[in-house]
Design brief:
The protein has 454 residues and is an alpha+beta fold. The chain contains 16 helices and 12 strands. The longest helix has 34 residues. It starts with 5 loop residues before the first helix and ends in a 7-residue tail after the last strand. It binds protoporphyrin IX containing FE (HEM). Its main location: endoplasmic reticulum.
């Protein structure tokens, strides 16, 4: 069953937005303005206090989780954030790099069988690597406690769930719960929910066992495993966290970190494969700064790679993993042109279009990493670039994401050169909850024989 109408929706929106600087559109039964001109976006950001609630359509995420840091506000949001922030804290990030490096080494090994072969879709290998990293870092477990097939199925079901949520957003007649419950979408969504929650339940049980046994033996770990906090903390009302509460938070965090990271890596790699001159420059930087050595990378190494940063930022500009951000106005909000949005309006910031404003980028649809030279960045207002969102609800996994993406790209590029027969015209973009490229990540790889593998 083909559920994704996102590709058509992306084309329609791009056609309409050529005609007007900011449009109103209906999503489901709600009047939902789509805003992407820089003046209005700047104005909205000034009123951020009145738009911290997520758009009503996001509530469909509850088909997967009952509570979620991604959409909740108030008490339950603060309660989850207090614990989840630890998962991506600076102190932990240093330790996480060990996991980023070792899991990427496995990815490099797995890909060796594809060297010199025909074009293949890199998405499954990347998904496996990212889920393994998230299990290791967030859950404090070696991903090998699950089989490769189980992990790949988990990644697939996560992807399916997002697809089901998008499908409901795009179908007004499925908004009322009583109608949705009779739909095939509900059945499919429930199957995914069960698989995902069972998978997380097994991981939580395994971690709790490990935690109790380390406690009994008085063993101290090098890093705080955030999930352990649930076993010893109380909720704000004094009760204990239930397995369902923990599953909700784990699934929300993995859900937030998985798809966005795989999408980022996919677009960067395919853009490098299309733009061989840029790939050559990135490779030169890596070999010069890291002395061609295939050792584990630390934050100092990664912070040296400025051109690689430019390439990643430029890819996020053209292909932001979250292309639209939906908020609910909790007060009347003034717009730049003298108009205003009424309290209760669901508004959508079209980040992907905002990022292609010719005022700030002379040739806005062209991939050009020079757009992120420090002097060029200084010329633009900071709020016209928001791959990680804005304000208080901005992504707090951004440093984690940047480090993991750079580690993976470095190891891959030190070992392989990526090629593709495709161009940007072949991309089949779909606006789902995240930005999907339905044509996958079709690449072939060539070994860099001159690099010594330690
Ligand atoms: C390149 C990868 C990533 C991108 C592009 C990204 C992007 C975003 C964006 C745009 C938002 C704001 C959503 C909104 O305003 O509606 C967000 C929120 C969030 N992200 Fe990320 N994200 C990435 C990776 C991660 C990772 C790796 C984690 C955690 C491990 C994470 C955790 C979160 C959380 C918990 C929120 C909700 C924050 C809140 O509402 O207070 N993200 N992300």
């Amino acid at each position: 069953m083909e559920l994704a109408s996102g590709t058509k929706i992306h084309q329609k929106i791009c056609n309409i937005t050529k005609l007007s600087s900011s449009i109103g559109l209906f999503i489901g039964p709600f009047f939902s303005p789509l805003i992407y001109d820089s003046e209005n976006v700047s104005q909205l950001i000034k009123s951020e206090n009145h738009m911290q609630e997520k758009a009503t359509q996001y509530k469909f995420i509850r088909s997967l989780v009952d509570r979620s840091i991604l959409i909740d506000s108030g008490l339950s949001y603060r309660e989850s954030k207090r614990i989840l922030l630890d998962a991506v804290s600076h102190a932990n990030l240093k330790e996480y790099l060990i996991s980023f490096n070792s899991n990427t080494r496995n990815l490099v090994d797995d890909l060796s069988s594809k060297v010199g072969g025909t074009e293949f879709n890199l998405e499954i290998d990347l998904s496996f690597c990212i889920i393994s990293i998230l299990i290791d870092t967030i859950m404090g477990l070696d991903a090998s406690i699950m089989t490769r097939d189980e992990i790949i199925l988990f990644a697939k079901e996560l992807d399916n769930s997002l697809n089901y949520i998008s499908s409901r957003i795009h179908r007004a007649w499925l908004y009322p719960d009583f109608l949705y419950k009779f739909s095939n979408l509900f059945k499919l969504s429930n199957q995914s929910r069960m698989y995902l929650r069972n998978f997380c339940g097994k991981l939580i049980a395994a971690r709790e066992k490990k935690f109790q046994s380390s406690n009994q033996k008085g063993v101290k770990t090098a890093r705080t495993v955030f999930i352990d906090k649930y076993f010893v903390s109380k909720r704000d009302d004094g009760s204990e966290f239930s397995i369902d509460n923990i599953t909700d938070d784990v699934l929300s965090l993995i859900g937030a970190g998985f798809d966005t990271t795989v999408i980022s890596l996919g677009f960067v790699i395919i853009m490098l494969a299309i733009n061989q001159d840029v790939q050559k420059k990135v490779f030169q930087e890596i070999t010069e700064k890291l002395k061609g050595n295939n050792r584990y990378l630390d934050t100092k190494d990664l912070n040296e790679l400025h051109y690689l940063d430019q390439v990643i930022y430029e890819t996020w500009r053209l292909y932001p993993p979250l292309p639209v951000l939906g908020r609910l106005a909790t007060k009347d909000i003034d717009l730049a042109n003298g108009g205003y949005l009424e309290k209760g309006t669901n508004l959508w910031i079209f980040v992907m279009k905002l990022h292609r404003d010719p005022t700030f980028y002379p040739d806005p649809d062209r991939f050009n990493p020079e757009n992120f030279l420090p002097e060029r960045v200084k010329e633009r207002p900071s709020e016209v670039y928001m791959p990680f969102g804005f304000g208080t609800r901005k992504c707090f996994g951004n440093i984690f994401a940047k480090l993991v993406i750079k580690t993976i790209l470095c190891h891959l590029l030190r070992n392989y050169q990526f090629h593709t027969t495709k161009t940007e015209e072949d991309f089949q973009l779909a606006l789902e909850v995240t930005l999907k490229n339905k044509s996958g990540i079709p690449v072939s790889i060539v070994s860099r024989e001159n690099i010594e593998i330690s």
